[in-house]
Amino acid sequence: MPITRRRIFGLLAGAGALVGVPSLWISRMKNYDGPASDHFDGLHFFDPDGAPPKSLGEVFRWQFGGGRKRAAWPDWTQSPHADTPPDRVDGDKVRLSFVGHASWLIQAGGLNLLVDPVWSMRVSPVGWAGPKRHNDPGIAFEKLPKIDVVLVSHGHYDHLDIATLSRLAKNFSPRVVTPLSNDVTMRSADSTIKVEAFDWHDRVELGGGIAVTLVPTRHWSARGMFDRNKALWASFVLETPAGKIYVVCDSGYGDGGHFRRVAEKHGPLRLAILPIGAYEPRWFMRDQHMNPEDAVKALADCGAQQALGHHHGTFQLTDEEIDAPAKALVEALDAAKIPQERFVAMKPGQVVEI
Predict the structure, then answer these.
(1) How much is the pTM?
(2) Which of 59, 78, 98, 178 places its Cα 20 to 30 Å from the Cα of 351?
(3) CB-side exposure of 109: number of CA atoms within 13 Å?
């Protein structure tokens, strides 16, 4: 495939913010200026047990190097499921509705909570390039109940979607909880977003007996040319009436230490939500995205009773087939002698109650 200007712009708009080429047209923004710590050097955040993002040369090797095998996804693959959630869920139940990619509606304790909400057609700083949606959100925006809280895990465009956050702010004015410095991104774009930023290991009371703790995860962050790792990233441990739910929106596996430490500090876990997609080629993606085999190991490490697979089948961020993660998850569970029902690859609109 020829290297055209439009293709390079598409790379910068889409894969760029995901894997290491910042969007060159994004201007400099304010940065977090808090005290240094064991994961912040005064300017950049880092994971002491992680890996840095790939270099520009490695990005172009992946995108334009010889022998690349990028699967062609169908233009549209509508999920057979669609959800109309109730206004509230009370008592000791938790209702989880998969919206798509890494977006969830979690209802518990009378609280309605969204995770990494994306209702946009593209995950990109521009509307004409970058990864586009291949199926509708599992919940139509107009069918959402009143949203009380939003959790945003990090600043990549497929997780922090300003258009959706602004729409939620206008309709519901929810409280937004996010790792340090992502609040700067949101406020710079829309001052009506009611965002609060927290550090790793901070525990935040959300109401209704629900609390969330931000925990380290093996990833990184960038949205613009000048902000690589200037905003923090995190996973979430939700305390609910039905038990603790470990929500991992983006993560590599590494040696599994992140998952084992969550088990040690926050277990037992009732449920883990684990990413299973956007993993090929492995030489490039291994440090930031798990494949299904990694995700099965992460389930064993964190010790959750059950797992749900997400981060697949909606936006084509990498090279594997659209249905490859779900198929590979079945094989990985069989190889590990784990029952299929313990770890299910979700489709938009599917609902799980615990």
Answers:
(1) 0.93
(2) 178
(3) 17
